[in-house]
Design a protein that fits this description.
It is built from 10 helices and 7 strands. The chain is α/β, with parallel strands linked by helices. The protein folds into 2 domains: 173 residues, SPOUT methyltransferase, trefoil knot domain (Alpha/beta knot); 72 residues, Helicase, Ruva Protein, domain 3.
Amino acid sequence: MTHTISPETTGAFARVRFIMVHPSHPGNVGAAARAIKTMGFHDLCLVAPRFPDVLDHPDALALASGATDVLASVQIVPDLAQALAPVTLAFALTARARVLGPPACDIRVAAEDSCRHIQEQSGLVAIVLGTERSGLTNEDIALCQRVCHIPANPEYSSLNVSQALQLAAWELRYALAKAAGMPLLPATDGRLDPGAELAPNEKVHALLAHWEQAITEVGFLDPGHPKRLVPRMKHLFSRIAMTHDEVDMMRGLCTAMIKTARQAKRP
């Protein structure tokens, strides 16, 4: 199945590059391609991957899962400096605190700063991720302008590199989409579900009468000693703002309760 590149990649989304330094597992490269495509990005760059044929590796192709167009356009370069050559703001994504090096921030702040940088400077932003085993070196981080972290469980903060990339891509998408006024929820293309509309009082009151009959039939309500059960039920159903479908569902339940109770009472 073929997929077309999202139109988002021609605007601000096209000004974000994801860089994987010395990736050793082809499956992570494929998963990274899928991760950035689901968030509307397309620019993935590999620095000296362990396998020269990583883009054709079966694991990479399998985990790309439809993002083979992103995989096919991946750039492979010999060092990080070359990968960062056109970049104007680079964030080194790392789990470890660094005493020396660029200032640090969390990934959400990094995404917001990236959005402003793209809007105000028309710059190219990069998220840089290190190897699966050891992450980024101090030399790698020194080539970046900022360090960023994904807040995680301090007792077990190690994320798979493709998972970390997915989280970074999501934060960047949210920041860019929100700034551009793009929808953050799936569109229904104007289709309406009449059953999801709120039921009018008349329909709710009919349900209440039916419900009172049903709980009487099953012996839950004693008409001779109702106490405050019925008013409380009415307050409950009025408070939850039921839809047409919900009222119809409850009416069906009432019918089933009455039928079952009457069948049980027959000799």
